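User: Round two. Same drill as before: sequence, then structure, for each protein.

Assistant: Same drill it is. First protein:
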Amino acid sequence: MKNILFISSYFPPAGGVGVQRISKFCKYLSRMGYKPFVLTPPAWSVRRDKDISMLKELPDNLEQISPGFIDVRRLIPGEIAKYLSFWQRDHFFPDTMIQWVNKAKRMVGEVIKDKQIDVVYITLPHFSLLEFVAEIKADSDVPVILDMRDPFSFNFYVKQEANAEYQNKVRALERQAFAMADAVMNVTVNIHEEYCSLYPEWKDKFHYMPNGFDDEDYPQEIGDVNKLTNTCLTLCYTGSYSSMASILPYRDAILEIYQKHRIKIMLNLLTPTAKKRVRRDFKELNRLGLLDYHGFMQHKDAIAYQLKSHVMLFPALPTEGYFSGKIYEYIRSKRPVLCAIDGVKDSHELIRKAGVGIFADVKEDSGLVKALLQLHSQWQDGTLSVNPDMEFINRFSCNQRSKRLSGIISSITS
């Protein structure tokens, strides 16, 4: 049995894709003979929606260590805090989680010795967790895996940063951590390739490790999409949305179809995005009875909600290589996945290979409207269909990904 120490700023009962990534690794590695330990902040300090159901999936042999700390964010009222963002950036580099990291770093060496840890797995963001690498390597030769769920030195916000000194600090911290880490995992092909190009001297330690889905979250048999009893064609989007991942083109297309053809298409929307914004953005859809809106929902309930819809919606993404982990649940749903595109990106290529993609070029006149009208016609005829490549899709199951992670661990611990 190998003892593995996970270090993460997010862990159940917090919800979200990042939490599922680490909790599912704990679940499946435990079945493979590992004993997981988790070093994570106390639950009260994490500002995320809670998903209590995730606690039920954690293995019985897991031990959690949650050192407390003083969080200055809780001492500053929200209305004042938003005016202090520059002050926070200067005092809490690279992010405010450094407050917890500075406390937890002082005990990580003792945890490794006392628990006889064989390998350490650190998942980011928060990027302040990169500081653990130097601390661990100063006291032991235990292998360290860095799990880059987002890139650091070339993420959207750092690239928009005008302060060269700040960018240099980011690159220096990243380079130091990568130099000492034994393996670095990247969540998309594009991010993986960009890191290999940026640091060719370490390309052998970089690994592509995508997000995925858990087969145990789905019913054994997913019913025929044409047998749903919905009274109209139903589209589904789950997750946050923003200018970086917009679903408003779908809203506009649904409205245009209703106004021109009096055809009703329902949008099932499951999002933790602020209610005020959702009500503003989808006011007209709601007025027409074409919106079924829910806020945050526990994970398995969210999966069941998806399966009540005919078509999954993938957001229009302006940036290559960045997409939500929800994509893997979409391709597992055996439903058509409609993609509003302005050019083929790696996310679209993944959906295409899965055999479930329908692509509408938003640069084409009424391209999205035409795609929805065609889907509506197929719904009326009972001919909605996809041809999922399950051999390809199953590569992204939590069980298969955990086997790959176990192989990486074996290669750096032998």
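Second protein:
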Amino acid sequence: MYLLKEVEIKDFRAIASMKLELKGVNIIVGRNNTGKTSVLEAIALLLSSYNDYKDCFGNNVLKLAVGRGGYSYLKRVHSDIAVVKGHTTNNEVLSLYLATGREGFEKLGTNQLLREAIDTAISEVVEKRFKRILQGLKIDITRSRRRIELLPEGTEQRKAYERELEMMLNRLKRYEEQEDLIKRQEQRKIIDELGFISIILIDNDPIKVHMVFKPESASLFEEEDKEFVELKKYKLPILVSAELLRRRPGRDIVEKLPVDKLIDLIDRLRSMVPYFYDYRNGMVIFNYSDGREIVPLASVGDGFLALLELLTPAILGVNVNVVEEPEIHMHPGFLNQLCRELLKVVNTYNVQYVMATHSLEFLEYLFKYARELNVLNNINVIRMYRLPNGEIDYEILSGEEAIEELEELKGDLRGP
């Protein structure tokens, strides 16, 4: 299973430049407005972009990110493009380029490789839509001829249909005779109508281009809102789960598990939640001192469901799990058990977590069990700062350095 060794972020959101070496468990800490969520978004966007920005459960990561201010705020103020790169454990380099506005598109075009990818994608879009227009026009012509045949000669209604047919035939003739000219014109229009574009690469090979058109776009082809153009066939490099919304946990995640994985999850839940007994066909069985209680999964509390959401993707084999505030909905008792099981899951399934937290309790529990399980060397803490000039800075602490600061120096890992 391939993981991320390193991530580079440039001009994304408020982050000017950042380079992170990742381990199995990566915890991002810092005060509010220091860029923690931006780091999570950058990683989730990079990995999900190879699956049309969908994570392993179908969540639209781009839609979630754009919901925080629109496409233009994905890149840093006064920057033309944003770039996120990931180096994987099988030595591939994954790259994502994001741009908005004419300046951004022109900046991408200064790179010959990216320019060729954009030109190819636009040409494919024009070609596809040109064929669709011709096909639709030919269908309309056939239907018009059939209507005319059913009407008596000389009637006003037939004359009207004949005039309409003549206009469609002239239009079809113009398209066929001037195909190259019309396509070139439409290519220029598409460039003017682009609102957002992203290009993904594997190593130095452009793989896919994603284009979003401005709502006010109006051209010959009546463009749809967005287009994905695959330039080359490829295998999805890394599966990602993106829990970027601080929301109530979902209640259908368990249904996605095959039987062997479900058995593993049930065993882990039994070790974490003393009163949990079993799960069968959408029902959770709790074993209390005065008897057993059977409850529909839809009626179980948010804390229990949050455990499921955090552990299930890893048990399913999802390579990288991006989580914002894992402590949300968690009672301290659950949080304690979560930290222990999370470290075991990372070791058992060789998966990776990148998480942002505000919880000192979460950090204390995590490092307590990391020392017990002898896995401190598989933990990173990324501490984010906002400098007086407004720029974002960061430092990386190893697991050993972080626990020393927590216990010996009695410091607050979350920063000043």
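The chain has eleven helices and 16 strands.

User: Perfect.
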